[in-house]
Design brief:
By secondary structure, the chain is mainly beta. Helices cover 6% and strands 46% of the residues.
Length: 103
Amino acid sequence: MAKAFVLLTVSLSAAARIELYSTLAAQTSDLHRPSTVGPGFGVEQGIITDIVLDTAPYVWQAVNVIGANADTPQSQNIYISVTNLSAASQAYVVSIQYVPVQR
């Protein structure tokens, strides 16, 4: 993606929860937080966004979401988790539109 960016839209091919993280450590430490529990208030957890898309069309338009990679050294990686919300096993197509702020 980019070292820093403004998130515009996230779309999925089917119902799912999608989370974007600034580091692999943030993604790993957040693996067991259910979708019904928000991140802790006032704590830097490296969560860029946590979205549940359960109604078609599976598109979310961001409002004032700025994300950045927090690795040292900073890179263009963003860590993504997609959780299937249906009982059926399936592959997902994920589309993320953004405007780079820092390359």
